[in-house]
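Let's practice the habit of predicting before peeking. Look at the sequence and jot down your guess about where helices and strands might fall. Then scroll down.
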Amino acid sequence: MTPSRDRHASPALWNRGWYRHARCLESPHFGMRPGHTPIDLIVIHAISLPPGQYGGGQVQQLFTSQLDWDAHPYFESIRGLQVSSHFFIGRDGALWQFVGCDQRAWHAGASSYRGRSNCNDDSIGIELEGLDTTGFEPEQYETLVGLCAAVMQAYPIEHLAGHEHVAPGRKSDPGPGFDWLHLRNALGLPDRCLPKAGLRQKPGAGPI
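Done guessing? Here is the structure:
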């Protein structure tokens, strides 16, 4: 992979880590990355709130610390949770950004990948609206591919992985329904850039 090493090389697409094609909803849940940390990993997640319910805006509310914890019984189990992701892609392909990519979002938690721990330090998190037990929509893949291509032009990305690969046993998303082969082919990536387990699994519901 030979992405640009200048994170501001595409001023038409990026403004200090903010992607111009995403809807901006700034999250209070972020921090500074450790100095001289290469941003070389994309972590892909799946999320829906309440689980299996889509389009209600609760994910955006969670990431911006505006979720009404009393609005649904499930929210009691996550009351007070402070998390964020850099990006969120809805079922219709709509794209939101919550944290600038130069900053550290709180998406991976306790994690380790390619010999490094604390993946939040050097990764960009992308959440897909969905469940780890089902597939994703063609519109989501279309947005994801375009976003990953733009990120790789601006940051020295060398690896893409799922939350399940950086926190195995603790997390299981995006799950068997995510089509890693489609993502690899659409981005023209060598196998070494993606998780081996993801490339071996048969996708549950790839884009058609």
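How did you do? The chain has one domain: 14-200.
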